[in-house]
Design goal:
This protein has 206 residues and is of the alpha+beta class. The protein is built from five helices and ten strands, in the order H-H-H-E-E-E-E-H-H-E-E-E-E-E-E.
Length: 206
């Protein structure tokens, strides 16, 4: 799987849905859990992944999230990425997923951030936890995420036709961007011999 598409999988699938949900606070002036359950939403925005090396190009596309209350669906599409990717990794249908916010607690800092139209801060200051499932081309994935207002972390698992991935991530704010420190391991499917396992520590940015 291309390094750029790894970033799509490991970063966007776990947090874009939340960014879309909290965008609702701008229109409603704040979120209450009871009211939140009744709110349908449809949110679309642009995705940009910078090049990993001077020799490679960047990727651009868009994502969309739709849902009502704690249940949501999302997709990410990177036009023309299929031209440089294996059909096992990416196809024109893009990455599709579903998720559920199991618990959500709106804090005063959440409301202040929404009042200031600061969606990222609203996300980081809200306490919640949930799960998600996703698929793209010939692979499927799942994971969970949680934020206690201080630590925003989660886990993921990706089962591909050739490679298996599993790891954890931690999200933090860095000025105008979000950093995701990730630690994961990968190995050929059905070949978890220690000599075939590779461990990676990497930071992604959006």
């Amino acid at each position: 799987m291309n390094k750029k598409l790894k970033a799509i999988v490991l970063v966007f699938a776990s947090i874009l849905a939340l960014l879309g949900i909290f965008a609702l606070g701008i229109a409603y002036g704040g979120l209450d859990e009871v009211i939140f359950e009744q709110i349908p939403y449809n949110y679309t925005s642009y995705v940009s992944l910078p090049a990993n090396t001077p020799e490679s190009g960047s990727l651009g596309g868009y994502y969309n999230i739709t849902g009502k209350g704690k249940d949501f669906k999302f997709f990410i599409k990177i036009p023309n990425a299929e031209d440089s990717e294996s059909p096992l990794d990416y196809t024109p249908e893009g990455l599709n997923g579903t998720g559920n916010l199991e618990n959500i607690h709106i804090t005063m800092d959440t409301l202040m951030a929404l009042y200031n139209r600061d969606l990222k801060s609203a996300m980081f200051n809200t306490e919640f936890n949930g799960t998600y499932n996703m698929s793209c081309a010939a692979w499927v994935g799942s994971g969970n995420f949680s934020n206690n207002g201080k630590l925003f972390n989660g886990s993921f698992e990706i089962i591909g036709q050739i490679t298996y991935w599993k790891g954890t991530f931690n999200l933090t704010q860095e000025d105008t961007r979000i950093a995701m420190d990730s630690e994961f391991y990968l190995h050929p499917v059905a070949e978890k011999n220690p000599k075939n396992v590779r461990t990676v520590e990497k930071t992604f940015y959006i």
